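Field guide to reading this record: the first block holds the primary sequence, the second block holds the structure written as discrete tokens, and the final block holds curator observations. Each block starts with its own label. This record concerns TetR/AcrR family transcriptional regulator, catalogued under organism Sphingomonas naphthae.

BLOCK 1 — SEQUENCE
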Amino acid sequence: MTKTLGTPPISPAQTRSADRTRKQILEIATEEFADKGYSGARIDEIAERTNTSKRMIYYYFESKEGLYRSVLAQAYARIRRTEAVAELESMPPAEAMARLTEITFDYHSEHPEFVRLVMNENIQRGAMIGSIDSTQTRSDSVVGMIGELIRRGEADGVFREGLDPLQLHMTMSALSFYNVSNRYTFEKVFSYHMGSPEAVATRRAIVVETVLRYCRKD
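BLOCK 2 — STRUCTURE
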């Protein structure tokens, strides 16, 4: 009687290697999708840059669409993780709101690929992002965090009543987004280099003060 051999177990080394390969593919794919959009990015180029193959990419992500969804999910997860570890609970509400605004601004400034991904997805009218459940869950969490800061600020008498956490999140994001999304056209039109360290620091301070002035009680 011939003994049937099962699939050999995957070793920890193989698992680590697979994780590294998958991570590398995601990083390069993020650059490609951010620079060229969904339609312009090519799996062949991503495979070449990662020294893998189209077959390997499809093994991990099933399709180009699957890879793009994973890139979007990772991009949004990263900014949400950055917000989540801010330890705002121990800060007074106004200080915590300022810190959250700084974190939001810094993330956009330091990750222009995130801004370009969001811009490209909006060009496609949000074709993919709505189907990524984890993005909705994480976005709900940051709105909840802002809502709690508003509640604490109202209770302490430092924030005015009637602040909407979703609208406030939108304001933070918009003010942080513009400094990256429009830096090249703004520079051409106004001869002002928005990406210089001095300009970034100046704009960061203005954005924080704008958010705080909006929140403060008269």
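BLOCK 3 — OBSERVATIONS
The CA atoms of residues 143 and 169 lie 7 Å apart.
The radius of gyration is 21 Å.
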